[in-house]
From TrEMBL:
InterPro entries reported in the protein's UniProt record: Hexapep, Hexapep_transf_CS, Hexapeptide_acetyltransf, Mac_dom, Trimer_LpxA-like_sf
Functional description taken from the UniProt entry: Acetyltransferase implicated in the O-acetylation of Nod factors.
Keywords: Acyltransferase, Nodulation, Repeat, Transferase
UniProt keyword annotation of Repeat present: yes
Top-level taxonomy: Bacteria, Pseudomonadati, Pseudomonadota, Alphaproteobacteria, Rhodospirillales
Species this chain originates from: Caenispirillum bisanense
Protein name: Nodulation protein L
PROSITE patterns named among the record's database cross-references: HEXAPEP_TRANSFERASES
GO CC field: cytosol
């Protein structure tokens, strides 16, 4: 397997692989172009997102600045909204369902690192996909850790750190995020 194939499969891989470095450079160039646009540049924004993202539905709105590793592992449904300064570390797939609204400076991490110190010393990394359901509301500065699934209609409070899956229709807050009763 190539390092890219390992990365996409969630296995240990070397991020310094030339193919992955080239993919990140490509994403950085597209992000630089996107992040200088304004709302008046709607057509240009759609063109850039079409080249950057793995897929996106109608009426997606991403306020600049926006940051990601590769872009091609991000799939956004219809009417998804990302506010200013969101970071999606997409070494594995990040999928966000229709109608989800994401506050400013939210961070979604599919990128992870091995717990074994020797593997880290060897420069190995890994990732786990993140799935966010439909009609979810994620408050500003929340963080979703690798491997998380958020069910439809859930709410994640501002500043929360989501370390475990969130069931459909649940509201979670805090660090670590816990259900509100």
């Amino acid at each position: 397997m190539t390092e890219k194939e390992k990365m996409l499969a969630g296995e240990l891989y070397r991020a310094g692989d030339p193919e992955l470095v080239a993919d990140r450079r490509r994403a950085q160039e597209l992000l630089r172009n996107y992040n200088v646009t304004t709302l008046a540049d709607g057509r240009r924004r759609r063109e850039i997102l079409g080249r950057l993202l793995g897929g996106y539905g109608e009426s997606v709105a991403i306020r600049a600045p926006f940051y990601c590793d590769y872009g091609y592992n991000i799939v956004l449904g219809r009417d998804v909204f990302l506010n200013f300064g969101c970071v999606l570390l997409d070494v594995c797939r990040i999928e966000i369902g229709d109608g989800t609204q994401i506050g400013p400076q939210v961070q979604i991490y599919a990128a992870d690192h091995p717990r074994d110190p020797e593997a880290r010393r060897q420069g190995l990394e890994n990732g786990r996909p993140v799935t966010v359901g439909r009609n979810v509301w994620i408050g500003g500065q929340a963080i979703l850790l690798p491997g998380i699934t958020v069910g439809d209609d859930a709410v994640i409070g501002a500043g929360s750190v989501v370390t475990k899956d969130v069931p459909a229709c649940a509201t979670v807050v805090g660090n670590p995020a816990r259900p509100v009763r």
